[in-house]
Amino acid sequence: xxxxxxxxxxxxxxxxxxxxxxxxxxxxxxxxxxxxxxxxxxxxxxxxxxxxxxxxxxxxxxxxxxxxxxxxxxxxxxxxxxxxxxxxxxxxxxxxxxxxxxxxxxxxxxxxxxxxxxxxxxxxxxxxxxxxxxxxxxxxxxxxxxxxxxxxxxxxxxxxxxxxxxxxxxxxxxxxxxxxxxxxxxxxxxxxxxxxxxxxxxxxxxxxxxxxxxxxxxxxxxxxxxxxxxxxxxxxxxxxxxxxxxxxxxxxxxxxxxxxxxxxxxxxxxxxxxxxxxxxxxxxxxxxxxxxxxxxxxxxxxxxxxxxxxxxxxxxxxxxxxxxxxxxxxxxxxxxxxxxxxxxxxxxxxxxxxxxxxxxxxxxxxxxxxxxxxxxxxxxxxxxxxxxxxxxxxxxxxxxxxxxxxxxxxxxxxxxxxxxxxxxxxxxxxxxxxxxxxxxxxxxxxxxxxxxxxxxxxxxxxxxxxxxxxxxxxxxxxxxxxxxxxxxxxxxxxxxxxxxxxxxxxxxxxxxxxxxxxxxxxxxxxxxxxxxxxxxxxxxxxxxxxxxxxxxxxxxxxxxxxxxxxxxxxxxxxxxxxxxxxxxxxxxxxxxxxxxxxxxxxxxxxxxxxxxxxx
Length: 615
Description:
The chain is an alpha+beta fold. The protein is built from 21 helices and 20 strands.
């Protein structure tokens, strides 16, 4: 009789052997045919893939003047497992570093907290941005230092010391940036701020690869297949900016020893002609091996030179904002150009008073803009919020808010630079949360004169000027005019309309022209240029008031709109108006008159003392 248990065990053992064999066969198939890891490991022993870095795109101003270019630079890298028996002291003498510094650099590259991707098989950074002289000295002796390599790079250089915060800078990629974009490897450079960051993918180009053969000891023997496997680097695309660098340099001169901003825009295109943020810095400080040290010093400066105040600064616009109120009241039928309001040295309602400077009363719209009457615009808002057609203050408030948003306030405009702030335009919900259900016009009356909760960026103020110049439309402001072999985003070519009509804008333009010929902007009355303007004196609870100006020229067919904001500068006529006038004159006439140059020099030399308080 057969032993069935024995037979069963025989089949089970045979099946197990077959299963193991099948498993091994599948595994071998995966390793040898499907899995590329082992092939890549073998290749890495036979080949050395050397990255070829492209030159970044050049940057020009609107008139074709070169602003940013590249100079050759060299990095030293090493592969840890290939370093064998080198003369360390000779290496240190060649690179003019100490033995301690040598060991510190090696130790730093092995620190997995700083270098998560460290491997003895992969290329590690040893020293960056050697000059031509340092490179020549090292290259001559490179054969003595097996395992060390030279990587050709380029560093940014500048033809101007202006526009540092606008142009931005480049620095080494972080691990987060590597994780977010497979283009980058450790030691690569990336745009960190300003235009270099905003247009990184256009400026960076495409890396190439040189394939080199190794021998059994890992030593480089030459090109593989005589270079047929190599891929060439493709240089980055050039940028042409909307910036007029001469205008930018004048603006930075005028803002020396001051905090604030100047923004000028070409109304018909939305092109930014100058964007000054004060204080600024020389962009050359953030190049070369001193970049880290200089960046640290700039970041610790209490005046915040790394902050682009033009797009990040949130300021009460003061009386420049009255133009937007006039447009809203006119379009909504709250006032006509002939409507008059009384001014008893300010807006007086029951026991509440908001002050104003002396002028005749009652006053109509055009002289109210020209003299910057607070009471006129307070009464206009009071009448709007009480108008029966809105069926309540909250609804009126939200209509007001919609007008402001349509004019480019309360949200980022969308300029092609990183970090733009939105400013603040309150709505009914905001005030209800703050005051409950029983707030009214007089509770928020200061918003009508650009105070209270209202804040704008200098860019938004300049865009207001451009919108008035265009009589109700604007194109999103931008700083890049053209990209080599490419188009700028359609956002920067498409006009937007506000809720106010052309007729309302024409009335505000008349008031702004009257402000220059007979009102608070008389210092901007440049013969032949037909400047239109509006002053602003923004109250400041922490010190002297801020000085502001917003205007454009000429009155017909405008070519430039400008906003000036000088922190703690006092009345708008003190700094805002004369600085705005000089910017307009320079751009439209191509130069300053002798008299204007003397005025510019005086403004440049004027120092505003901000103390040591953090701003």
